[in-house]
Amino acid sequence: MFTFRDNKSLHHTIRAFWDAEKIVAAYCHGVAALVDCDLEDGSALVAGRTVTGYSNVEEDYIDRAAGVQITPWRVEDALRERGANYVGAGLFKAFAVRDGRLITGQQQYSSRKVAQAVIAAIGV
Questions:
Q1: What is the predicted pLDDT for the residue at 58?
Q2: Which residues contact 57 (CB under 8 A, 6 or more apart)?
Q3: How far is residue 38's CA from residue 31's CA, in Å, rounded to a whole number?
Q4: Confidence (pLDDT) at 124
Q5: How far is Cα 69 from Cα 84, in angstroms, rounded to an integer?
Q6: Buried (b) or exposed (e) across 20-35, using 16+ Cβ within 10 A?
Q7: Global pTM value
Q8: Terminal-residue alpha carbon distance, the chain
Q9: Given this model, what pLDDT does residue 55 score?
Q10: CB contact set of 52 (below 8 Å; sequence gap of 6+)
Q11: 20, 21, 64, 93, 100 from 44: Cα distances, Å
Q12: Positive or negative, the Cα torsion across 70, 12, 44, 89?
């Protein structure tokens, strides 16, 4: 999360996959890589798309447990700010969303659901 959001090289790779009509998938805090990834026309990859990622309620839970704020920003808030339709399943529930070729998972317990969505998307 700390290095993904501003990583232009990573954004270039994601955009290349998208432009080649390949599946783009991320989950948990890895969805941070999608937040500031812009398409060739300058629009945000996530704008107008339904996505998920580490939720604010999960961040709140972890912050309370640690007694400090762990992350400098929140994936859910940043996705919404970029025009995404953020959806979540609740505190630490396995959850994934597929919006066309874009597949996102809520947190670490969502990896299986993300993998299943990718498999379904490629038609295996």
A1: 98
A2: 88, 90, 91
A3: 14
A4: 72
A5: 24
A6: eeeebbbbbbbbbbbb
A7: 0.96
A8: 30
A9: 98
A10: 31, 86, 87, 88, 89, 95, 96, 97, 104, 105, 106, 110
A11: 17, 16, 32, 27, 15
A12: negative
- Token pair 């026309």 is found at 41
Torsion angles phi and psi, residue 68, rounded to 5: -150, 160
Q: How far, in Å, CA of 38 to CA of 63, rounded?
A: 30
CA distance 33 to 4: 5
36: DSSP letter: T
Q: DSSP characters for 63-105? A: HHHHTS---SS-HHHHHHHTT-EE---STT---EEEETTEEEE
Alpha-carbon distance of 14 to 86, in angstroms, equals 20
Residue 102 tokens read as: 């874009």
In the structure encoding, which two tokens stand for residue 74, read together?
């929140």
* Cα separation values, 40 from 12, 18, 81, 86, Å: 10, 10, 19, 23
Q: Token pair 């709140």 is at which residue?
A: 60
Give the pLDDT means over successive 10-residue stretches in the chain (124 positions). 93 97 97 97 97 98 96 97 97 98 97 98 88
CA-to-CA distance for 72 and 78, rounded, in angstroms?
A: 11
